Structures are given as C-alpha cells and as structure tokens.
Amino acid sequence: MSQFCRFGTAMLFLLFQTFLYQASGQVMTARYTSITPNTNAYYEYLPQGYNSTDTTRYPLMVYIHGAGDLGVGNSSTITLMLRSGPPEEIADDSFPAQVTVNGKKFGFIMIGPQWMVQPSVTDVNSTINYAIAHYHVDTTRIYLTGLSMGGGVTWQYSGYQPSYANRLAAIVPVCGDITPDLGRARIIAAANLPVWATHNNEDPEVPVAYTEQEIAYINEPPAPVPPAMETIFNNDVHDAWTATYSPSLNVNNMNIYEWMLQYTRLSPTGNNPPVVTVGAPQSITNPTSTATLTGSATDSLGTITSHVWTFVSGPNTPTIDSPTSYTTGVAGLTVAGTYIFSLSVTDNRNLTVATNAQITVFPPPTGPNQLINVQLYSFSNPYVNSAWNNWNMGGSSLTSSKFNYTNGSPSNISATLSAQTAVAD
Questions:
Q1: What is the pLDDT of residues 227-260, one digit of tens each?
Q2: Which of 67, 85, 144, 407 has a CA that sits 20 to 30 A from residue 357's CA?
Q3: How far apart are CA 270 and CA 141, in angstroms?
Q4: Where is 39: in which H helix or E strand?
C-alpha cells in the first residue's frame, strides 16, 4: 500500500546528522510487579551489555499501550501487548538494539506496563519514578510514547503540568485518542518539549484532526524550539503504529529512535544539585562517648550514586562505625568539645554536595552533687520551668529520656518505672 508523509520543514536542519542502528538477539522479560494499583505486570527490555552493578546510565523509553491491550497483568493477558508497539518490534527481533547518533552509541531501557484501565498521569509519573529507582536510567534522556489510548495519555501527561513536560526529553504520540486542548499544548510549547506525532489521514476510529490541531496549538506563537513535528500516513486504518515504530521509517533521514536520541532534558544550569539533610545538632555528657549520625539525600533531576560520612574537626578523632550508611554510630567522643561531621553526597551527574552535622560533648559533672527535678504528669499540664524535667506518664513507655540538671545542662541519667498506675494531672 502506498503511503505518504507530511512533516514540518522546520526539522530539515536534522538532515545533516548521521544515524545508524543494529538489532540482534532481542530479549524482553515480563515482570509481575505492581508499579501502581493500576498494573500488576510490565515488560522490561534492557540494552545489550546492561549490568546492574556498574554505573553506566541508559536512555529510558516508557511505552503506553492501546485500549485493546488492557489486562489484569498475568501471564495470559500480558502477551496482548506483543501485538503492537515496541514490544512487538522486540518480539520480532526488529527493535534497534543499538542506535548511533552523531558517533555515539545508545541502547534503550524500555518499560511497558500492562494497565487494567486507562492510566492516569499519576500512573505514568509513578512508572518513571519506578524505572529511575530500579534501573540505571539516564535521567536526561527519558522518552514517552504510546499509541491510540496510550497516545492520548502521552499527550495528557506531557501537557498536564510544567514539571511533567520538563521531565521528558521527547515524546512520540501515535494516533492519540484525546481531543486537542490549547492549555495542554501551551504547557508543552513552554517547555520546548520535542514532539513527533503520527496519524493516518483516514483513521476511522480517532480523527486525524486530533493530531493536526494539537500540533497547530503547540506551534502557535511563541513556538517551541524545536517546533512540533507531525507525520501523516496515507492509510485508511487506525494502525499508524506499525509504520511509526518500524526502524525502517525514514523521515529527514531518521526513524523515531534516532530522532528521540538527539534530545536531552537538562535543568537551566545543566543539573539540580542533590539536597542533603542531616539531623539537628545534638549533645552528650561524658562519660557517655557514643552518638548516632543520621542523614538523607534526594536528587530531583538525577539519582544518588554515593554518600559518605567523614570527620571534619573536634578535640580528638572519633570512629565512624559505618561511613557509607546514612545512619551510623560514632564512638570515641571522649573529650569535651564540639565535633563536626560531614555527609557528602554525589549524584549521577558527578555533582557533589556536603552538609555538616554537629555533636557537642559536655564534660562529666564536677563539684558538689547536682539536683534533678522531675515532675510526673498525665497527657497535659506540664510544669513550665527550666529547672524541672517533665515526664509524661500518659503514654505507654515506662522509660524516660535523659534528664537535665537543674542548671539546664544535660545528664546521662534516665529512669524506668516498674509499674504505671493512676497517674493523673
């Protein structure tokens, strides 16, 4: 059957880029894991040479199937997904195992859940989060594609809010089953999100006008860079995906895999640094000489690849029990003074951030005996006086925290009750 392609001339500058692909030995695995309550299984495709123990990061393609492939996610229903899209290309050993873009070789991670009902934008976002958490994903190269229902969801997620559009490097919606929306299109345009949409000109199920109008909305002034691109095939069936996902597609000397890999998504500064959090300053009193350091880290654009605690300064050198754990014990705090520790975190873009934690060590009490005042009460009415320790007996614990002396300095003394009866305010 003859076909024709119509596409925007604004993409012609890409003619000068060179692309190659090769495919062999396709391996795809069904994983029976619930990423969200709307799915019980997904197909996983890993690139050649993928090793879960190394630090190499790979482009991620998230695929959203059509309504005809909805299922409960068991071994009988998930195979419906092999009829179309990237899963079909992989099953037929036609998916590009390796793509070379301007001399650099890439291999995709492909994650395609089987949905029970049409996925929400939250479902899609959770899938991206899951992939980043469980696979070596290059977070600057996250691509979203889908067909029919999945094409509509691709449009919907990308234009739902700016943070979603800015998470993606490029999208390929195929005969997207969703009515055009100007607000959604302007979010995509404002993010300069690369778009290549496809459709059949005589699609009997989803009007081609859906794609044409959405592209027109996106390209209204101020137009994105690059302008959104459309390819309209000359065909009278709903299936625009076979032509779209075929590696033999050639528009401006590219198929969709080569086209996607041109694009990366970076923050305005190239990377958002990790955010490192440590516990509040703490204190102990000798002869107690141990404490616990706690910390955490997040990275909005990438993933944390390493973290380590180090000793910065203090009156003597303590021992950090587990330097590469976020929570670790510290021993050897035997000399009074202030100890500073640093939690250093590095992300997959090799950006390192450090935050300090402080432990103050007080000397053991000297001179005359010091008093500890304790008021026992139940749930309410504590005694508001810095010379007194309030011990709430209304809870279930019979052990107190460490008390302060009447002068406000911390002690190493706590107490445990053997019984708890009729404590009242």
A1: 999 999 999 999 999 999 999 999 999 999 999 9
A2: 407
A3: 13
A4: strand 39-45
Q: Whole-angstrom Cα distance, residue 8 to residue 18?
A: 20
> What is the spatial distance between Cα 293 and Cα 324, in angstroms, rounded to a whole number?
12
Provide the residue type at 289 as one letter. S
User: Under DSSP, is residue 366 helix (H, G, I), strand (E, B) or coil?
Assistant: coil
- Amino acid present at 36: T
| pLDDT of 357 over the 50 cut | yes
Q: What is the DSSP letter of 266?
A: -
- Residue 382, pLDDT above cutoff 90: no
Indicate the angle between helix axes 182-190 and 208-218, nearest 10 degrees: 50
DSSP 124: H
User: Nearest-CA neighbor of 305 among 354, 355, 346?
Assistant: 346
Contacts of 20 (CB under 8 A, 6+ apart): 99, 100
What is the bridge-based pairing of β-strands 275-278 and 295-298?
antiparallel
Distance CA(51)–CA(40), nearest Å, equals: 25
pTM over 0.70: no
Q: From 423, 13, 30, select the one nearest 227 (Cα to Cα).
A: 13
If DSSP states are collapsed to H, E and C, what string results for 178-213? CCCCHHHHHHHHHCCCCEEEEEECCCCCCCHHHHHH
Token pair belonging to 259: 């086209």
Torsion (CA) 388, 391, 392, 396 in degrees, nearest 10: 170
Residues 6+ apart with CB under 8 A from 260: 59, 61, 143, 169, 170, 172, 194
